[in-house]
Structure formats: structure tokens, C-alpha cells
Automatic annotation (TrEMBL):
GO terms for molecular function: cobalt ion transmembrane transporter activity. It is found in: Cell membrane. Belongs to the CbiN family. InterPro entries: CbiN. It comes from the Bacteria. It is a multi-pass membrane protein. The keyword GTP-binding does not apply. This is Cobalt transport protein CbiN. Its main location: membrane. GO terms for biological process: cobalamin biosynthetic process. Part of the energy-coupling factor (ECF) transporter complex CbiMNOQ involved in cobalt import. Keywords: Cell membrane, Cobalamin biosynthesis, Cobalt, Cobalt transport, Ion transport, Membrane, Transmembrane, Transmembrane helix, Transport. The chain crosses the membrane at residues 7-24, 71-90.
Length: 115
């Protein structure tokens, strides 16, 4: 293995293992979860700052559990990543096809017909 590849693998391994090692033995703050979302943290902050705050609307449907909610979020992220990947692939292919075709001058007769 090349030194650069070994360095990249070691760095990635460290980036994955170090946070897990850092968290081991720690406890979350009282009344919180390890990986609570920003929505619940914002809701707690709003209730602490303005207890009489009224929500603007209620969700039409609430998932049965946190696992279902996480699944839906993961599916949404996967679909978004797939769409972005498809768009990127199409854009690169179009660019390559345009670069491979020889440059053509406009046909003077055809340009008169289009007017």
C-alpha cells in the first residue's frame, strides 16, 4: 500500500474511533438523550424562554415511534442523495459529450430559415 493510502486509511479510522472512544464513560445531561435532534432541543429552549408560547400548527401525522421517524428521515436523505448523484452524473456526461464533438459553425441557410 502506498504511504498516502495508508495515511488516508489511518486518518479515517481515527476519525471514526476517536469520537466513540471520547464518549465512552460519559453520561448525557439530566433529562436529555445522547443523540436528541435539534427539533427537540429547540422545543425545550422555547419552553424555557417563553412557557406561554403557542405553536403555529400541529403535524398532520406523527410517526408511531422514534425508529419510524428515523427510518423516514434516512429514506428522505437517501432519495435526496440519489437525486443529486443522478443530476451530477447527467451533468458530467453532457459535458463530456459536448467536449468530444467537434465544434461546428452555424449553417447560414438554416439560420435564415429559423428567423
Amino acid at each position: 500500500m502506498k504511504k498516502t493510502n495508508l495515511f488516508i486509511v489511518a486518518t479515517l479510522f481515527g476519525m471514526i474511533i476517536f469520537p466513540l472512544w471520547w464518549v465512552t464513560g460519559m453520561e448525557p445531561a439530566a433529562g436529555t438523550e445522547w443523540f436528541s435532534g435539534s427539533d427537540s432541543q429547540a422545543q425545550d429552549m422555547i419552553l424555557a424562554l417563553a412557557p406561554d408560547y403557542l405553536t403555529w400548527f400541529e403535524p398532520l401525522w406523527k410517526p408511531a415511534s422514534g425508529e419510524i421517524e428515523s427510518l423516514l428521515f434516512a429514506l428522505q436523505a437517501a432519495l435526496g442523495a440519489g437525486f443529486i448523484g443522478y443530476w451530477f452524473g447527467v451533468s458530467v456526461t453532457r459535458h463530456e459529450l459536448r467536449q468530444s464533438q467537434p465544434a461546428r459553425l452555424p449553417d447560414p441557410i438554416q439560420s435564415r430559415v429559423d428567423c
